[in-house]
Amino acid sequence: MQTYEKLLLENKAWAQKRIEDDPEFFERLSHLQAPDFLWIGCSDSRVPANEITGTQPGEIFVHRNIANLVIHTDVNLLSVLDYAVVHLKVKHVIVCGHYGCGGVKAAMSNTSYNQVLNMWLRNIKDVYRHNRQELNNITDENLRTDRLTELSVIEQVQRLAKTSIIQKAWKERNAPDLHGWVYGLKDGLINPVYEMKANSEIDPLYEYHNL
Ligand code: CO
After folding, report:
1. Can you give the CATH number for the domain in which 180 is found?
2. For labelling alongside 46, which of 33, 95, 172, 208 has CA 20 to 30 A away?
3. Is residue 93 within 8 Å of 160, Cβ to Cβ?
4. Quick one: pLDDT at residue 1?
5. Pair 79, 62 in one domain
């Protein structure tokens, strides 16, 4: 059997089990999704949003990319954010990074990963530059990487608050709250490192007054 065929077999078994536990499960979900959460996580296969938060299909709207970055020109990310915030009206947006992130490690190195990845990871290098003094003072390389991971998550949350999508939602419905979390591959635990409640103060330079 090919490896991908196992996925299809497992899928059949999973669907069967779901129906046994809750005969209406698929029928109910097929009509409506009303998740409270938007999850912006790393594509890393070891950080599955639903599994590590004990949530079910229908509970979390998910966007994943390499190193969970919020890039203000990324049409993919912005479409997901717009849909989740404006249409699904999620109550919380969570940016979840993880310790041991390959993207963060790559950004800390001087290796070229060819232009597209270089372009993407450059955003993390910028976070390093903005926090150079603090990071350079950490002598242990793993601890330095961990701290950059946390600082990057904080930066991504702040970038969310700079979008007109979030600012308009804050004005109209005093939500969503923004959260920055870092998941530990070694212990499976999430470390909440940052939070911006709805209508938190932001740098006036990025404030829109005509929303
Ligand atoms: Co990662």
Report:
1. 3.40.1050.10
2. 33
3. yes
4. 85
5. yes
Which residues participate in catalysis according to the annotation? 42, 44, 46, 98, 101
DSSP letter (8 states) at residue 3: H
- How much distance in Å is there from the Cα of 28 to the middle of ligand 1? 33
Q: What is the pLDDT of residues 12-65, one digit of tens each?
A: 999 999 999 999 999 999 988 899 999 999 999 999 999 999 999 999 999 999
Q: Are residues 4 and 93 in the same domain?
A: no
Q: Is residue 24 part of a domain?
A: yes
Phi, psi torsion values for 76, nearest 5 degrees: -65, -55
Residue 126 confidence (pLDDT): 98
Q: Give every strand in the sheet of 177-184, ordered side by side.
A: 60-65, 37-42, 92-99, 177-184, 190-196
The CA 150 to ligand 1 mean position distance, Å, reads 12
Distance of CA 13 to CAs 24, 63, 105, 131, Å? 17, 26, 38, 49
Measure 43 CA to ligand 1 centroid, in angstroms.
Answer: 6
Provide the token pair at 51.
């599994």
Q: How far apart are the first and last CA of the chain?
A: 56
Cα-Cα-Cα-Cα torsion 201, 202, 207, 211, nearest 10 degrees, comes to -50
Please compute Rg for the chain using Cα positions. 19
